[in-house]
Amino acid sequence: MSSSDVSYSVHNSPAALQRLRKRKAKETRFRMYGRAAIGFAMLSLLWLILSLVSTGYSAFTQNFITLDITFEASVLDPKGENTPEALRRGDYQNIINTALQKRLLQTATQSNNRELLSLVSVSGAAQGLRNRLTQDPTLLGETLTIGVPTSDEVDQFLKGNIKKDTPEIRRKISNAQIIWVETLNKNGQIMSKFNTAFFTGTDSQDAELAGIAGAMIGSLMLLSIAFIIAVPIGIGAAIYLDEFAPKTRWTDMIEININNLAAVPSVIFGLLGLAFFLNFIGLPRSAPLVGGMVLALRAFPTITIATRGALRAVPPSITEGALSVGASHVQAVFHHKLPLAAPGILTGTIISMALILGETAPLLMIGMVAFMTEIPTSILEPATALPVQIFLWSDSAERAWTERTAAAVIILLCILMTMNAFAIWLRYRLEQRR
Fold first, then answer.
1. Count of domains in the chain?
2. Strand pairing class (61-70; 190-194)
3. Which of 172, 191, 189 is nearest to 180 (CA)?
4. I want to staple 423 with a disulfide (CB 3.0 to 4.6 A). Which of 29, 94, 336, 350 is the partner?
């Protein structure tokens, strides 16, 4: 028998062909599993985005009732003082109620008065009128057509989230209020506008007035402090451990602990901040300074690991070439190796910042759950962060809070995706320049 016949019989025997078919079948199944996993992940992501958008998109609009507001001097400034303090003490609820009665031609009883006032956000409308009059006292005695925000119940009814056919006992808007709202809407006296208050306002007990501006500023402060602390320490530690530290048992232990810290649950860092920064050092509770330092501890190991990986990805010939022409070790690292590792370092840094931006547990542990009605102006003032604000709103059962919670999550996801996209773009640009 020739060698070609032996080769043919070995590689084309029924047993060999059967093994080949099994191997191809396994490869086919593996591809199918991979595609199914990717499809499942994409469908889950699509479901998440669609559920958030369908729940939260309506929070970006707010309904307003157009009223003819008369700034009556006898109600707002009965003593005729005409000072900002006196104008701020005026009974704005009275003139809002009068404007509603005139608009609906309603001579109401006391109970109807309460229902009428419940059509609008009394606190929001009163505050808006108060600010307008104190800024321009000449409006006293004048009548202006002004749009005042509706209450959250009326707003949700107009957006279709409260159904008219639901029994009255199971909804917070009465049948009389529904009739009034439909009358106003039919007459074109209700308009829907972009909800600027959601982006410019702070937290509020009234859902229709709640905004994310205070939480956004708090998150920006936290991120800035964490960046200033964690980035230089993380990159410096990585450079030292990878390039200059002697290879001893102690450095091996430090490397292992850094790797372990990256896998530690974030709530542990919150407990550390509570015990050290608050209880031991005595720093103010709920301050962005403390939150930023806690998040810096959370980001430090991630930045260190990303930096070491980027440094190790640089070919050793770069350092060896620099040393061969007389450069010192420090010059070889900082002038040659570090610039080539910069894309990976910056990408890891931005991703770590995006990671800590979404942290909630450490901030809860250090008390950043304050009810903030003002935008913080200092890193030592009480503040909150956007993830914590989302957590607090999600604890409220009313539909208006659910809507704003989903909208805040959409904003947070957009920021995170923007940061990740910027990291990818920055890495691509830096790699193109090399």
1. 2
2. antiparallel
3. 189
4. 350
